[in-house]
Amino acid sequence: MSAVGFWKDTKDSQKVVRQLKELKSTVEPWENLFKKYQELKELSEILKEEDKELIVDLTRNLDTLFNEIDKLQLNTLLGGECDKNNAILSINAGAGGTESCDWANMLLRMYSRWAEKKGYNVKNIDALFGEEAGIKNVTILIEGEYAYGYLKAERGVHRLVRISPFDANKRRHTSFASVDVIPEIQEEAQVNIENKDLAVDTFRASGPGGQHMQKTDTAVRITHLPSGIVVQCQNERSQYQNKQTALSILKARLYELERKKKEEKLLKQYTQDKKKIEWGSQIRSYVMHPYNMVKDHRTDYETTDAAKVMDGGIDEFIETYLKSQKSLPVRQAGKGKS
Fold first, then answer.
1. Do 174 and 300 lie in a common domain?
2. pLDDT digits (tens, 9 = 90+) for 126-138
């Protein structure tokens, strides 16, 4: 960066600055934690048994250090090519009719609340509402650093067991919804889309919205003819904005498709994730009757605080899954019952 003429090529210079920032965000936290460790180690060597207050203070600082190490360890698991990218998350109601549409809506709220707590921005892209309640499918964009890295752990089928509010006889129902997550691709050079390969249709937006959206053909549907991928957006105010958002999602889906073609291992995993949305294919179960429990079937991590989970408290599930992929130990080992 100190070389003469470095700033002449703005595009290249900005790329190097981004790389430097990423490297610093990796190295500096480790150096700071190691410095704290050395300070506590030196302090422990001069401690005497009668210094009870100092021992309590040292113990508290050690606990803080362990927690910070856990967070840093989690960041090391997010080293994938697109882990730092924004996430495009889609939820589709499965077997179960109105009950599953309501379950899909509950999952949408759960992920929205999780994103809010992370300080991420949530943008609704497209939604198809259920006939009686809930949503049949929805696509949202979650903007924030490592959004995809975290949420890729949520890809799969989610199962709900509860007393249905739509059943007059108050019987217990089982519902399913699938969650798919792909990274948003920000560099256009990575995906080349030709206009001749696109079929663009416009239509009027449905569902809640202003009069302008409902009276004009602002919604856009784009079909990529070679791959058959279809994307649509109807939540922006203008047709142009909807088209740009739809193109962005299409690029992300095409990039993901190519990545999976090149990497056979990921392709196999993708195929497994696309199981039918019904019995035996779920990655996680949310039981709200006759007891409260949320259990991840991939890691056996579980909690009895279902209300916390539905309010966006899914960090423990994400962390445990990511660590299991790298065969790393989880602090306070066990099933995570709370």
1. yes
2. 899 988 889 999 9
Sheet with 87-93: list strands edge to edge: 121-129, 135-143, 87-93, 172-183, 156-163, 282-287, 293-296, 302-303
pLDDT of res. 321: 93
> Can you give the pLDDT at residue 334?
39
CA Rg value for the chain: 24
For residues 151 and 177, state if they share a domain. Answer: yes
Residue 195 belongs to domain with CATH number: 3.30.160.20
Residues 169 and 282 in one domain: yes
Low-confidence ranges of the chain (pLDDT < 50): 188-189, 210-213, 266-267, 269-270, 275, 331-338
Centre a 10 Å sphere on the Cβ of residue 72 and count the other Cβ atoms it contains: 14
Phi, psi angles (nearest 5°) of residue 174: -115, 130
Q: What are the counts of helices (DSSP H) followed by strands (DSSP E) for the chain?
A: 9, 11
Backbone φ and ψ for 85, nearest 5 degrees, come out as -75, 165
